[in-house]
Request: fold
Amino acid sequence: MNSLLSGDFPRSRLLAAILLAILFGLAFAPFLFPGAQPLNVAAKICVFVVLVASYDLLLGYTGIVSFAHTMFYGIGGYGVSIALYSFGPEWGPMALGIIAALAVSVVLALMIGLLSLRVRAIFFAMITLAVASAFAVLASQLSWLTGGEDGRSYRVPEVLRPGFRLLEEPLFGVAITGKILSYYLVFSVALVLFLLALRIVNSPFGRVLQAIRENDFRAEALGYRVVVYRSIATCLSAGMATLAGVLMALWLRYTGPDTTLSFAIMIDILLMVVIGGMGTLYGAVIGAALFTLAQNYLQVLMAQVSEATAGIPLLPQLFHPDRWLLWLGVLFVLSVYFFPTGIVGRLRR
Amino acid sequence: MSIPALETRDLTIRFGGHVAVNAVSCAFHPGTLTAIVGPNGAGKTTYFNLISGQLRATAGEVLLRGRPMAGLPASARTKAGLGRAFQLTNLFPSLTVIENVRLAVQSRAGAGLDLRHMWSHRRDLIEAADRLLADVKLTERRDATAAALSHGDQRKLEVALLLALDPDVFMFDEPTAGMSVDEVPTVLDLIAGIKAKGNKTILLVEHKMDVVRSLADRIIVLHNGALVADGEPGAVIASPIVQQAYLGLEVAE
Ligand SMILES: Nc1ncnc2c1ncn2[C@@H]1O[C@H](COP(=O)(O)OP(=O)(O)O)[C@@H](O)[C@H]1O
Ligand SMILES: [Mg+2]
Reply:
């Protein structure tokens, strides 16, 4: 257990309990919450845990502010999309697509890193923003390759398709379809990637990243070539985001600008990392779970409140499901105000 | 004479019109402790910054064992054997004391690029860090964050980081400034201990004349960025120019 978690324990009973509950919920999601919609939410949580954790590696551990994270996420998605669409729904092309996507991401990350990690943080952030916007425009204009604004649906290898049946008989009342296998693929890859990230931040290398975040000048003076460490962190984070994109593309069997490159996703990632707690990794789990649940169920909850308060002036309008974004914003402001170090930071006090 | 451990030739830096370090040429030999004195703003810290690579010289060169350091970043100079403690405390505030020291030990061991193992995997590095903490008498504060330390303890940690690098050339920039009287001897004893090894080169910026007199083999004086006196401690301190202009107050103490 120690080596699985790389010696980085939750260090709070309540936090450990919440994390275990999330792990348990995700591990048995198909059986605990049957139906397409809950499974969809669970898969999204898994993908976002990876995506947010990879962003935390950059922002929370290394102190690099980047807005290009969805670009790497998108590259993973498009890698799978292009490969499966062009060469058919087989594992071989898919592996090729994933490797190509990883290569493109790492090269881009390295270029961004070497070119701009030497400049001040604010310029770096702006450069990443510019590169990400350029990439989004490119993806929508190369429509022969990417499907443009509409994106593209494609078929995945047969065992991952909803029509596939692994077992003749349902298991605990749930038919074991390709969709469920697909979910467990997403879940287990996400779990492995998260544990890998936990190892990286708790390795000798990870401590150097934290040292750079705290005082890059002194890290350099101690003999650590800061630009090299930052570049490696950028590449690792980009690679992990790419794999998150791969998982999402496999799960949705669709890749388009809205599901990968949109700036709205970038903002979601930022919110999740801040709500969960920067520089903790466990914050990524809590942030992703909480935020995705809120995104999917806040409207339902509000509809109920709105109905329950019918007849009382103002309240029904205030809780009308169309106002859900407003309430999400309120929740965000409150959580940052009361938990400036995120939920994990708060629980660990 | 043997090849100097460290040498500067016409080392100069200009900030706009202001020449902060002005054509300083000086060689430092293994086994010697050189005190660098001069009034505040004389350019002592800037001279250090040029040597260790925090600032780029306008003109002149820095040579480490005869090898030019031009264009090398601070990290490469540290790897080449140049160690530096800072005048203004310069630590990793939210990391613990032991983590701070271990980072320095790990840099020296070249183990920073290990992503596969846990931080706790290298027992030897942690043990080395713990020994250094004992040396600077910080063992009790081992698991406190650097930010939580008193000023004096932070200065000691600063010294521990330099000791951890175990460089050929040690550069101390006012290591005892702001320390309480009973903490000063700990640091001075450590510096004397390095000197006793006999093969290390030590540069020490220090205002306290009694300290300088007891530790230094040689004193150089900087004023307005220029080297104005250089020699054996007794002679330099006694020289009229130093007596009057720069050290009057301290000598009178
Ligand atoms: N980065 C800088 N930009 C402009 N002026 C500087 C800079 N660093 C140092 N100086 C100036 O150089 C002079 C020497 O400063 P310093 O080396 O800190 O003196 P000392 O350490 O001897 O007290 C001072 O006048 C200081 O204002
Ligand atoms: Mg100074």
Residues B 15, 20, 38, 40-46 surround adenosine-5'-diphosphate (ligand 1) (CB under 6 Å). The longest helix of chain A spans residues 36-62.
